[in-house]
User: What shape does this take?
Amino acid sequence: MSLFDKLDNYYHSRKPSEVWMMVTLIAVLIGYLLYTLLEPISTNYRETQEGTNQELRTKIENANSYIHSVTVNGDKNFHINDLNRKIVKKRMAMNQLRAKMAKLDGSLKEFKSLLYTKDNWSKFLHNITLDAKKSDLKLYSISNHHYDQNETFGKVLDVHIKTQGEFNKLLEFMNSIEQTELVANISAVSMESTQNQPIADINLSVWGIKP
Assistant: This one.
């Protein structure tokens, strides 16, 4: 006889009330066992969910508090827009400063061209020699005469140059002289024809301010 047959015969020999009582006890026992096994898992899950929900609520509250703190007259982007306006103003001020610096640099360069010093004079005469060499000219002589003037601006130097070379090269040379940083202009030029290349006598004046 199988186990199920034995159980069936056992329950048939019992009163229905006894059978229901035993079924109830078994159900209660199974329920208790399930509760004992699942209760820790359920508690841990519930606590985890509560912690997650609390963290979300905290983040939402912090976000709402931040939005409230940065909102001015209903404008949530007030501080961002204000910062952008300040950045634009700073850039405009920087551009204005750069323009002033460029203007000042130009003024300094202009003043430098007017300022006549021994260094500028030496450099000017040296550049004349270099320009003559670049233009393939034969330089015979350079003479100069200083002017002691107390005026704010005036003639400070006369220079006489005697040189020989091709006509186009002579023109190129004279043009380079007048392109110098100092304020110089050619006051007179005389050409002497020769069997080879012309000889030029060039007189020029330098104007400026003595420090």
Observations:
- Strands lie at 138-146, 154-164, 183-192, 199-208.
